[in-house]
Amino acid sequence: MKDILGEDPSEKKGLRLELHPKIKNRLKFWAEKGLSSEDRDKLLTKYKRSEGFEAPKINLPIESNLSVSAKKRDTFRVLTQNSIGSALMAIVSVASTLITETEALDLDDAFEKLFEAKKILADAFHQQSLSRKATITPSFDKMTKEILEKANADEFLFGKDLVENIKSVKAADKVVSVAKTPAQASNNQGKYLNSSRPKPELCVATTLNFYVKKTKTARGKLGNLFISTVKPLSRSTVTMVNRLMRMMK
What we know:
single chain, 249 residues, mainly alpha, 12 helices, elongated
């Protein structure tokens, strides 16, 4: 009956691998964050690559015709290839020992090589995420590009909170833009002032303070708050008061 039915097409195929939490958590961290340059260099130096596991060099006639950006991308990919090469050297070393010296296998040594190989591969995984980001980000505006470059990958290349991050940054930028925009009144500064007179900033408090000081002596004789600025000893007309109020808007 099972032979007739065959395999259940709805079931996921592949091995069901069990990962120890202590190993899984560490590898997940390195896959998302990568290794430091110092740690990476130590591991790649420790597991030297033999012929066939070193990233192939670019032929000189081809290299001389590459653009700066193309050379930069290739240098990054060479690092990834060499990382994989070093990881393969560590794994093959353990496999070779299993074939030739089964009884003399040093478990601690084998575990160290396998774990460090996985560490290198997790870092190579991270390098590929960076490479994908570098390919994608130039397509966006400057602000979005900066957000994408700082984003950390998780189940999504630019993080699951990307949309919220972009919205919050752009909203903050709008607030800053509004704060930097000069008040409309400043564009009218001096509109109602005679060019030969002092031009205080069009702030109500500043303008009123300027007026009070300017007319202190004249007002002392007349007892009025508003007096003519054209004829300091005259009482202010309605027109003059209106002009002053417009100046203070």
